[in-house]
Please model this.
Amino acid sequence: MSDSAVSHTAKLELFEKIILPHLNAAHNLARWLTRNEHDAQDVVQEAYLRAFRFFDGFKGGDGKTWLLAVVRNTCLTWRRNEKRGMTNEPFDEMTYKSNIPAPNQEEQLVNAAKIEALRNCIETMPVDFREILVMRELEEMSYRPISEVASLPAGTVMSRLSRARKRLEECAKWKMGKAR
Model:
């Protein structure tokens, strides 16, 4: 076996160990940024190809942060290349449901209305706020990794997160009040 084949195999093994475990986080971020399941799958596939191609540039540290930066940049490139409006394909909440026992029918209806209201609020949020909110609240990332992924100062991340939470709260109150 040649040296390049050995180094390629070693690179692949290291990539699989460090980066592959974060596939769900990559897909989650891409799904919220593209607002479309099929586009998210395409973006994640492209992001993983890019990540592998440039894996030699990974200097250690948190693989999830590094990968999500690649996913975010791939989403930004995708949006620029598409030059079209974002689709309004509904987010399939059933794909992300938990294994918690189902509540009674009335509770299910109330919970479904709340989830739908939150989903709509997040989807209509400007992408600058949405991406920070998704990374913090759904991916449970701390400020520093979000700052690295978004290429923003930590103070800007905190400010955007605060404004995103406020917008989300106001939107949810309005939507829930409207549903009554």
